Amino acid sequence: TTWNFVQTYALQPGDRCLNMMPLFHISALANNLAASLFSGGSVICAPGFSAPRILAWLTELAPTWYSAVPSIQQAVLDQAQQAGDLVFSLDGDEVHVEVGRDVHVSSGEH
Length: 110
Fold this sequence. Notes:
4 helices, 38% helix, globular
C-alpha cells in the first residue's frame, strides 16, 4: 500500500510532507511517514492539527504535499475560504493549493 502511494503521487527525494495527523492514525503512518521515507523525502510533523495555523504551516514550512482525512481537508478549505487569498484546484483526487507555489494534497483514502 505504501509503495503504491509513492508511485501514485510520484513522490521524489525532494518532496516534503506536512503531517498534521497523530502518528497512531494509519494514514499518518502509511501515507505520510512511510511513503516519505520510502521515496527518500522528508516529513514535517506538526504538533497536532490546528486549523488556524494551517495556512502559516503551508507558507512557512514549505511542504510539497500532505495527506489528510476528510475532516482535516474540510478545515483546510474553510481556512482558505476565510483567508480569501489561496487558490484551490482539483485534478482527479489531487487538490492543488497555491500559496505562492503548488502543494499537492491527497485525500488520505488510498
